[in-house]
Amino acid sequence: MVDSSASLAFFEVEEEEWKSIFPREISKLTTNSKNFTQLTNVLKSIQYKRGVLAYEDWEVLVPDTYLPEIQKFSEKITTNPEPKVYLCIFKVDDILSPNVKILKTSFYILSTDEGLVILFHEMNTNISFQTQYSFEDWVIFHPSEIKPIYRPELWLRDKQNTSLYKDKVAAKNAIYGNVVIFNLPELIPNPPLFRYPKEDEMVVPTEQWKSVPEKLKALEEMRKNHLITDEEYNRKKTELLKEF
């Protein structure tokens, strides 16, 4: 841990670790600390989907009260002669149970000589403790591979320099709804993605599918992962069965 406060903590991430868990294209980037000063501006533009049912229910993901601390940290590490990737973890206390329940967010920050990449590992994850928690309790972190999130959880307000990441090689599940790219033209898709597409906006090429049973299997997986409702599942299933 390189810096912390009551609700924020920053950690250095070893190169071997982040190169092994970041998406392949991002893991090949060369780090440079100079764009860390842009971090708070990027975070200000990131909104999080609060509501479960309403698609348009969005709020700022990182509380404004945390931004000065993040900015101070960013300015400090900009002068670091050896560029690093950092992990930021913060928590927001539950209003009704502030001593035993929190919302936890964690994200990696990679700065290059051109821009930034922010990779979210957790976003407002609900965590409950049996007794009053301590600092050591909520900063516990278990690294794992950054995989695509197939849900519309983030919305980017900056329409000039940011986009969600899209794997140019992957045929399916290519959009990372949890990875934000800032000012890196080689990684920003064309057109840019400011939120994960709604279901009716996603176009799946027919050549990617071999059979109706394969479609049904994928549909079942979507329902199990709560990506579609039971009503949507039944409607799509009926449509697919008519193809036989």
Strand arrangement across the biggest beta sheet: 1-2-5-6-7-10-9
Number of helices: 7
In terms of DSSP E residues, the strand content is: 25-35%
Shape: globular
Sketch the topology as an H/E string, one letter per element: EEHHHEEHEEEHEEEHH
Structural class, please? alpha+beta
Q: Residue ranges: pLDDT <50 for 5 or more in a row?
A: 202-209
Please give the share of residues in helix. 10-25%
Write down the overall mean pLDDT.
87
Number of E-type strands: 10
Largest sheet: 7 strands, antiparallel
The radius of gyration over CA amounts to 20 Å
User: Could you tell me how far the N terminus lies from the C terminus, measured between alpha carbons in angstroms?
Assistant: 58 Å
What does this structure look like?
With 244 residues, the chain is of the alpha+beta class. It has seven helices and ten strands. The strands form two sheets. It has a seven-stranded antiparallel β-sheet with strand order 1-2-5-6-7-10-9. It has a three-stranded antiparallel β-sheet with strand order 4-3-8. β1 and β2 form a beta hairpin.
